[in-house]
């Protein structure tokens, strides 16, 4: 979601405007406020990610000795109507902002949602409000780091102090890199070794309360809702007719309620065992957390330490590092990406295997719009488009189909579609996961292949999931529902679904193309081993499998509350840093 809202926009122009156009911090451009006393502290907290009041160290520190505080979020309406970010992500964001505004009202404050570009908006607000300090959460991603460095430099030039603190990640990523000799660790095993030698992450800070304000107030005007209210989807140019109710409700309040249910679920599973995978498992869970971690409605540190405390209560010992594999994989991808501006592309990306993918816009469109002719794949893509989320097993299936499995199309194209549609797609994690699933980095067991028919039948044997999302197939007999093109003509007519008319024919012969693609990727890796340039990063080393939790383990826990597998399977004296990765299928 690079470039979305304001947290990832280029701020260099804004910094120049701050330097050239800003009046004294004690003046008001509109004459609506008296110039504050020269020694008074007036802060603006700039929300980007981190849309919460719990574990917000930058805001908490900024409130120390502050006279006034204002919390802002900047939306560019032009960007909203012209970007490729889907309506579900925008709706989730607006719900987050509405929830944040409600929480601030309890502190006799409000959220200031500013329309415009940061380059124009911030200087005007600083002048109007007499701002003396700016606070924000440190951005872990490279574009945000560049933007924030520019804004900090210019703020210092005009006498505005800046407070930036780490709270989107567990650790300060630069510290991990420093401990690894100045380079990001590029295998999870190496990453684990580094963080095992470091102090544990700082604990999550408490919710911002009236006591934390220490007398600081937020000046409000009668026209606040007109100027700074949370916009609607319609105001941002979206058509909402026919939009289905949200499956995921945005906001810190929902995130904290889900965390409580998530931990209760883990405790139950620890006592009674992990449930079997069923088609129902593919649906969104009321205990899922991933979108809330992505938007920062939920602190990763709060999740980390509450999971730790739960383990101690269940096992009565300190947890092994592997317990946190689900959140540490997130940290690993952030660390790998934080100094790599090309992490989301093949070109110029030193850790990405340069696989010669094909270009086929028609094939990409069929995959993205659920027209592949494979019901298992299409039902997943429909769920993604309608709800903004799919299970990790489903992600594996559609990613393998697009890339190394069937269509031989670059992971970059799949990443763009996920960036548009999936609620939890963060720039670093989305790119990292797509490189991993396409065997372009972090993993290269390319002989494991997710068959779009047999794997779907294994997970959804009766076709219940398919019938839910592809109603035209609801009357297709179970024996044919995963490959309806094999049904006799009279069966198709009886089911009122004639393949090629009511539902598309399969776009490829999956058996043939999968074998061709396995040979292709074998050749790529053989050439890598033969012609690796001296002194370059070896993607095969980056991709080398380790006996450690995979990104799948991470997603399983955060999405579906299955991290209890760690509580169930680890012995009380376990000190291993490994967990069992989920099964892969050569041709399941």
Automatic annotation (TrEMBL):
Residues binding FAD: 326-333, 424-426
- Lineage, top-rank taxon, reads Eukaryota
Q: Which InterPro entries match?
A: Cryptochr/Photolyase_FAD-bd, Cryptochrome/DNA_photolyase_1, DNA_photolyase_N
In this UniProt entry, which residues are annotated as the site Electron transfer via tryptophanyl radical?
357, 411, 434
Per UniProt, residues of the Photolyase/cryptochrome alpha/beta domain are 41-170
Query: What GO CC terms are in its UniProt record?
Result: cytoplasm; nucleus
The entry's free-text remark on the cofactor is:
Binds 1 FAD per subunit.
Question: A single Gene Ontology molecular function, please?
Answer: FAD binding
Biological process terms from the Gene Ontology for this record are: circadian regulation of gene expression; entrainment of circadian clock by photoperiod; negative regulation of DNA-templated transcription
Keywords (alphabetical) are: FAD, Flavoprotein
- Cofactor annotation: FAD
User: This protein is called what?
Assistant: (apollo) hypothetical protein
Organism, per UniProt?
A: Parnassius apollo (Apollo butterfly)
